Amino acid sequence: MSMNRDNFRAAQPPSKVLHVRNLAPEATEADVAELCRPFGRVLRVKLTDKYQGFVEFDNIRNAIAMMTYFVGNPEAPRVCEKAVFLQYSTRQEIGGGVAISAAHGSGGGPPQLGAGPVLLASLDCSDASLGPGIDSLHTMFSSFGEALVQFSDPRMAAEARAGLDGTRVPAYMAPSHPNPITMRVGHSMLPEVAIQRESEWARDFAEINALRAAEAATAAEEAAAAAQVPAAAAPSDGEGCCVLLAMIDDVQYTPSLDAMKQVFSVYGALAKMQLLYRAGAWQALVQYAEPAAAAAARSYLNGHAMYPGGANKLALEFSMQRELHVPQDDEWGWDWTRQAEAAAAEAAAAEAAAAAAQLAAATPAGEGAAGGGGAAGTAAATAAALESPAPSEHVTGDDFVAAHEEVMRDNEHLQRENQLLAAFLDKAQQRQQQQQQQQQQQQQQQQQDQLRTAAAADEHSKRRKAAARRRPEEEAFQLLSEEEKGELVAMETEVLETEISGERAMGEKDIDDIRTLMEEVEMRIGEIKKATYEFKRDIILAGDDAHGGNLSADRVVRYWEEAIRAKEVMLEKVALKNSTYKAAIAKLEAQLAHKEEMGEVLHLVDFEQLKIENQQHMEMIDAKNKELLQLKLATGKTVQALNAGKAELARLESDQAALSGEIASKRQELAAFERGLMQTQAQAADVERTFMLLEAEHRNTDQPFTMDYILMKHKVAELEKRTADWRRKVE
Fold this sequence. Notes:
alpha+beta, extended
């Protein structure tokens, strides 16, 4: 019983949290942790009331190793002697549950003392030429560190040994091998692997990585030099562009931002990234901070597969966009420069507010309130516009284009507002100057009108004060309404997000419960159908009366008595088996107590002796493995030479058959030509004899007639012509 790899892989992206289903009722957190122990450290285990659970590893590589092992293994994982089902969880961590200590969570344990970075991997393949190649082995071991079998760190080597020892090589890495290949991985006594020359049997990836780093540095220098060239002289082949368009082919694993970032961040600092899904095809837009990093990434990742077996193959080219716009940070896009831009926007808003405050302080009461309200309103509108829109659950290509157009319209609106603000500030300054001039004129006018009555002056001052009071009240109301609207929208958004998250959590829990109930109901339905079929077969069909169609009551009673008796026998067997297990446990406990009393328990000295013997055996195994490897290499070379000889022999045999057929055809043509030659020679002899006879007759004739002469001459001409023809044929 094994899990379907394709279905489960396509259904859920990898996560460090695994979902375990179909647990036994007596299963505990320790039992689930025991199942996961060989694959890495377990942080938490949480069991639900529906015979399900969640397991959280310390990193995603351990979860992938566990899923890969059981997907390729025909035997299903078992907890408490019951088969369970595993799949990646939608969550990235577990809330609550039981925390597992380091002693329980790491199956491999800490790296052994004296264990170096060199691993010895033995493959039980019958033919070395049909086994996995050096690139396939590098793909398997590179998930634990940047090396092949010799790692740069002993801890990476220990993790690789714990994750790969006893696992099977995937079938796509050795498609020609008839049987599954199992790996045995252990530490080697060699401190370092020496590669004399690179071939299909050995390769030094340290030199390759150094060469790639040097080439990347050269490409970065060239790109930096090209970036200094004026824009008019720059070619149109993507130089100076920081945005890459990645088209993902052969999608077997759902693309995610984390996986894309892990692949693309090797070649430089990432600025922005956007995932697109349009018409059944996956694409991604990646923007680097520098053009050199984009050029290096395109040079080394174009045609590269993100996963083993050619899955998620990348096709890269420079994008027509010079700047990537990410509406919000979610699973479809991320902008790592947003924090810096937000800080700059806050600083700009603070400067605008300070300028507006200075302007308001220098402006009279009525117009100053209007100016302050406009500046603060525009600053608030700018800050509100810089906020990201609400995240969407799914963004397609058309949605992204629509969002981009909407953002462009918002930018144009903000630019118009900035222009209006600048025009307002200019007008405010002009108005301030005019007011100062008016004040001076009013002062002069007041000096001239001092002789007027105090009542008129008091009435005039009252009218001015009333107008000044009305104007700020009208414009202050608009500023307060915008701020209040923003606060209300923020509060409503927070409340809605909290309610949505709560409803989503409750929905996931309800879905898990319903799935568990459906499985139980399906199992119960299967049992009922089976019992119904047996009852119909044994009682109804076998006991029908041919005349009346009545059932025999005795037969029905016997059937149910036998069914009850079978259940009782099953219960007795289970009880007997339970008592047997209890007796065995008691016996083992008694033996253990006896050994503890007699001092036969293993001590530290015995353990050290066993370690020494184990080390000696490991050295012998390494030597035998080396001899076996040499024999396999010699066998592989012999098989290759034999195959080459067989191919050469087959080619020579085919050439011989072709030449034999050609010789037979030539012989047939020669025989036909000889027969034609003999016939021609016989005809020529007959013609010569006839000619000689005619010539003799011509000599013996004393004086022929004219007509006879003409006829004879004509006949001689024909004979000469025929003779010439036959001679030409003979020649």
